[in-house]
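The record is kept unedited without comment:

——
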Amino acid sequence: MRVPNDSDFLGIWESGSRRHPLDRALIVLGAAFPELPAESLAGWPLGRRNRELVELHGRCFGPRLSGVVSCAGCGEKLEVDLDGPTLAGEADGPGPLAATVDVGGDAYRLPASRDLARVAAVADPRAAAALLAEGCRVGGGAREALSDAELEEIGERMAAADPLAEIRVRLRCPECGRDAEETLDIAAFVWAEVEARVRALLSEIHALACAYGWSEADILAMSARRRALYLEMLAP
C-alpha cells in the first residue's frame, strides 16, 4: 500500500468530489494501489475493500474512526468512535474468505463494488437484493425468482463469509432512549477525512501564496513541517 501525499489528496478530492460514494472509495484505493487497474479494485469483495480503507485511514489519519449519525427517532446527533485495527481484527475469521456461498444448489460469489454500483439506482430494497444476488450467482442458466427466504439466507451467508463487508453497531440515543443498529460506511469515514485534509491544505496554500507569492506546486513541494513553520511566522 502506498500512502498518498498532499498532491495525491488534492487529486483524489478533485476527481471524486462530484462522483458517487462507490466511485470515491475506488478513487482513494487507486491512489493507494496505483499498480492495480481500476477494474481489479472494483472486483474486490467488499470486506477486502473496507479492510484496505481501514488500513489506509490508520496510516493517513490515525486509527480512530470518528463520525456522527442521526437518530432515526428524534434526529439527535450521535457520536460514533471506533478503533480501526480492533474493528478489522474482530472481523477476522479462522481462515481465508470463502470464494462463494452455496444456497439452494446455487453458488454465489461475494459482492464487490461493481455489484453495488449495478443496483445503486434501484429504489425497492427487495428488488435491489434480488438483482444483487442474481448478479453474484456463479454459472449461467435461467432459474426461478428467488424467494424471500432464499434472499435472506443468501444475505446471511454472505455476511458470515465476509464480516467486514457490512459493519453494524448498536447505538442508544440519550435524548429519546431509542436503541438502534446502524450500518457504518467505512468509505464515508475515509472520504470525510479526505475532504477535511484538503480544506486544511488549501487554506495553507492560500495563506502562503498570498503572503509570499509562491505557486501551489512550490508550496506542495515543501514538507508539512516546513509549511507549518512559515504559517507560524505569519501568525499575528
The first strand starts at residue 64 and ends at 70. The longest helix spans residues 186-212.
